[in-house]
Specification:
It contains 17 helices and 4 strands. With 317 residues, it is mainly α. It folds into 2 domains: 172 residues, no CATH class; 57 residues, no CATH class. A hairpin with a 2-residue loop joins strand 1 and strand 2. Helix 4 runs antiparallel to helix 8.
Length: 317
Amino acid sequence: MTWRQDDAAAARAWIGPTRPYDLLKEFAIALVVVVVLAAALAALFSSPDEPPVTLAAWARADPMDFVTTALSELDGSSGTATYGPPYVALPGAGQRIGPLNLQQLAGVRIPIDPAVDFVLEPLRTAAAGDPSLDQALRSWTAATTAERRRWVSAYATALRSASVIDGTIQAPGGDYGPVGELMQSELTLAQDGGLEGAMLTRHAFYATDYTKPLLFLADGSYLGSLAERQHLLGDQWGMMNETGSYPGQTWLWLYTLWYQVPPFSSSGNADALVWALMLVLTTGFVLVPWIPGLRSLPRRLRIYRRIWRDYYRELAR
C-alpha cells in the first residue's frame, strides 16, 4: 500500500464497531488520579529546600576565603575584575567564535568596579560612625597606585600565616597601611549581614538585582565548594542537575553533554563553542520538515503502522 492509499484510507468514515464513552467521567477520574499522584510524588520527590547562600553565611563559614577574595577585588585580580564585558571594559577579554568576540561585541552592559562596588563603597556606608575606618578609607584613597600594590602584596603575604579568631583577623605585623583595617571591617560588615544590603541599596532603596553579591560570591571558592558537593559543577553535568541527588532538567542533557567531551571540556572558550554548536543543531531540528530525504524517514520507516497496527490489521481484513 502506497502512502497515497494510506491517506485515502485515513480519510474514510469509520464503519467499524463503536462503544459508548463518557468523556466527563473519564476526565473526572483522570483529574483525581493525577492530583493524588502529583501530591504524593511532590511529597516524596520534590526539590529540596536548600537555604540561600549569602555573603553573611560565607563570611561566617569560611572567613579566610572571604577576606582573600575581598583582597583580590581590591587589587583588581579577581575573576570579576578580569572577566571583561558585560561587567568590565577589558580589551581582549571574552569568549569568541573564531575571530568574533561575543562579549566585546555586546559591550559593557552592567558596569562594575569590583574594588569600589564590593569593598570601598559598602565600607564608606559603614564608616559613618567609625572614625578608624573612615581614616583607613581616606588613606587608601590618597595613596598612589604603587603604594596600594605594595600594601596589598604585603597583606596577602601576611594572610598566608593568619587566622580568624572570634571574627578578628590575626595576621602578623607588616607594612600594609590601611589594608588590614579595611579587610577587618569588610569581614565584620559581612558577618553582621550588612554587606549584602549595602551592595543592593547603593542606587535604590528597594533592590532585587543580586548581580553584585553573586559575582562576589563566585569569585571565592566557597560557592564552588557548595556546588561541587551538590554535583552542580560543569564537569558533573551540573546544568541538568538539581541540588543533591534529585533529578533536574533532564531535557538539558544535549546542552550539558558537550561540556563533558573534548575539546569543550578543556577549553576556556567552551561556553561560546557550545552555544554555537547548539545553534547549529537547533537550526537543523527546525529545518527537518524541509530537508529532502530526512523529512521522508517517518513515511519510509513506516513505524506508524506498528503503532496503529490494530487499525491497519482491521483495514486489511
